[in-house]
Amino acid sequence: MRLYTKDEIQHAVRLNTTVIDGIESAFTSLKTKKVAMPPIMRIDIPANNGEVDIKSAYIEGYDSFAVKLSSGFFNNPKLGLPSANGMMILISTTTGEPQAILADNGLLTDIRTAAAGAVATKHLSREDSRTVGIIGTGSQAKYQLEALTHVRPIDQVQVYGRSREKAEQYKSFIEKSLNMRVDIKNTPSEAVNNSDIIITTTPATEPVLKAEWLNEGQHITAMGSDAEHKQELDTNVLEKADLVVCDVKEQSLILGELRSCSNSKLINQVHELGEITSGLKPGRTGYNQITVCDLTGTGVQDTQIARYAYQQLNFKEDDYNE
Amino acid sequence: MRLYTKDEIQHAVRLNTTVIDGIESAFTSLKTKKVAMPPIMRIDIPANNGEVDIKSAYIEGYDSFAVKLSSGFFNNPKLGLPSANGMMILISTTTGEPQAILADNGLLTDIRTAAAGAVATKHLSREDSRTVGIIGTGSQAKYQLEALTHVRPIDQVQVYGRSREKAEQYKSFIEKSLNMRVDIKNTPSEAVNNSDIIITTTPATEPVLKAEWLNEGQHITAMGSDAEHKQELDTNVLEKADLVVCDVKEQSLILGELRSCSNSKLINQVHELGEITSGLKPGRTGYNQITVCDLTGTGVQDTQIARYAYQQLNFKEDDYNE
Asked: What is the tens place of the pLDDT at every residue in B243-266?
């Protein structure tokens, strides 16, 4: 068993179409294969405003699976440290032996989360989507946008963030790295207006997106809420949408946007992303539909990206050994 | 973060009274401190007769806690591999940062499990206990006996195992390493007869110990059952006992000896080990009582032993650096 550092992993793993296709197949496997994906294990450390989550999933037929530890300690920034930490452990499904420690510090989670956004957008947004409205300026605001460029011809971004300074940093980063125009907006509604795709990527505990700002034909990916106290979408967004999709209903009802929804008829009609990627249910069926996808994060994504990273790392090693 | 190998850990950690006292305090903390100990996460890999368990516990006031992965893949012996694998990850409760990977391959679990047996025996067996009857010849049969020597004046062992060859190996190992006499018995009842302390340490799925074999004053530690399909004690053993104790009732009812017991009055009277170590409830109160302790394994033990190992490893490192 070897420990791989974030630096090694960063050099080996890129957010590309192979990764996005892999994450798509992980969602499909939730509906087409036997999958063991236990509920998230969570340990709260209230004394230090911290939490550790443990996720895992075994997909039938795969020769390995991942156990992921991820933590958020929200006093860390005061100590000059990032709030997030994490690692993945890849385990052989043949013998139970640990194959690798991927000490990625959350990098692979960032990549697999963004890839899920791309998968959702590929099935739910209009094919001619060019403009993205982003609420939030954190690392997922960057990764999600990069992932989108692999599935839609994006060439313009409208961003809103509570901190003007961070919005400026975001603009500068994206304009350099992805070579597309970024407009900083003063309100979330301005970021939403005329966007083909809207991404909410905030730790908000109260809605940052309202139904009255939406136009026909828009797609929304909400990936911020992953805990009992978080919410990004006003429930009237779900009511207004023609199609509501989530990654795992059971999780979204506890940790995601479905938590705040009391309309049981609506909840019954929600599709899971794997139903759409597997072809069991249709995605977008009309140009003017409003579509929503709520992502809370799943163990199958972790198993998929950890396996991919391990393959890439070993391929690179072989390369170096030539 | 550093990865420590089994070899390094083996050199740094000994099964001694410090470890036993630490495990005792871990049980006490379950009753006297705020503890976050989520239910065990389990991933089954039926295709390869395998399972992976994840345990964790945070004890208030500690600056770190452990997440433990342990696996049993029961086709491994056919491949020439041990069925068990495992590791512990020590995480800072201040920042969430991983401090160490203890790639102990189950060694620390063996030690903390044996230490729990010693804690139970210290509170529940007669102080003058000299003879131990052991059913089972695996690694815990060795570790449990070694742990007992730290709390009781053990000088004789009666062992029964289904394989005569393994019983011979056990006898030879114990006589050399612990310098005490070991008699191999032909039946479990002979191993039980005249023993002061009885340890069952088997993967049995049907009872290996029956009430009719028991004498007044005996103590039994049953540490084999840790899964829904396992059982070592005939339920009439629990009925006959004057005092039944377990590590965590909720777990014992699902994974341990209480699972097979339908006597709700008896179950109500079962004490948890932490109630006894903390002084909230008495242990043995009479010379002729029959006492039982069922151990299924707890996350607080893992956190305790992982913290101890890390301290020892760093102490050793400092030593080497001098």
From this structure: 999 999 999 999 899 999 999 999
**A-side interface with B, Cβ within 8 Å?**
1, 3, 36, 38-39, 41-45, 47-48, 50, 52, 54, 56-58, 60, 65, 67, 69, 71-73, 76, 79, 81, 83-85, 87, 89, 91, 93-98, 101, 103
Q: How confident is the model at residue A320 (pLDDT cuts 50, 70, 90)?
A: very low
Main-chain dihedrals φ then ψ at residue A97, nearest 5 degrees: -70, 135
pLDDT digits (tens, 9 = 90+) for B75-113: 998 999 988 899 999 999 999 999 999 999 999 999 999
Pairwise CB contact (< 8 Å): B85 & A97: yes
Burial class (CB in 10 A: 0-12, 13-18, 19+), A217: middle
Rounded to whole angstroms, the Cα distance separating A275 from A281 reads 5
What is the ipTM score, two decimals?
0.86
Contact B67/A52, CB-based, under 8 Å?
A: yes
Q: Pick the residue of A51, A60, A83, A91 with the most B CBs within 10 A to test the interface with B by mutation.
A: A91
Contact A94 B69 (CB under 8 A): no
Residues of B in contact with A42 (CB under 8 A): 38
CATH topology of domain A116-297: Rossmann fold (3.40.50)
Spatial CA neighbour of B102 closest among B12, B13, B4: B4
Chain centroid, CA A249 distance in Å: 15
Separation in Å, CA B277 to CA A79, A228, B150, B266: 38, 36, 17, 21
The CATH architecture annotation of domain B114-297 reads 3-Layer(aba) Sandwich (3.40)
Partners of B44 on chain A (C-beta within 8 Å) are: 36, 58
Do A48 and B1 make contact, defined as CB atoms within 8 angstroms?
Answer: no
Domain ranges of chain B: 2-108+300-321, 114-297
Å between B16 CA and nearest CA of chain A: 29
Task: Determine whether the interchain pair B58/A43 forms a contact, defined as Cβ–Cβ distance below 8 Å.
Answer: yes
Could you tell me which residues come within 8 angstroms of residue B32 by beta carbon, excluding any fewer than 6 positions away?
Answer: B274, B278
Q: What is the largest CA-CA distance in chain A?
A: 60
Report the CATH fold assignment for A2-108+300-321. Answer: ornithine cyclodeaminase, domain 1 (3.30.1780)
In this predicted model, which residue has the larger pLDDT, A82 or B185?
B185
Residue B322 pLDDT class (50, 70, 90 cuts): very low
A166 catalytic residue (yes or no): no
Where do the H-state alpha helices sit in B129-208? 139-148, 164-177, 188-192
State the catalytic residue, choosing from A6, A33, A68, A185. Answer: A68
Residue B126, min C-alpha distance to chain A (Å): 39
Instruction: Confirm if A99 and A314 have CB atoms less than 8 A apart.
Output: no
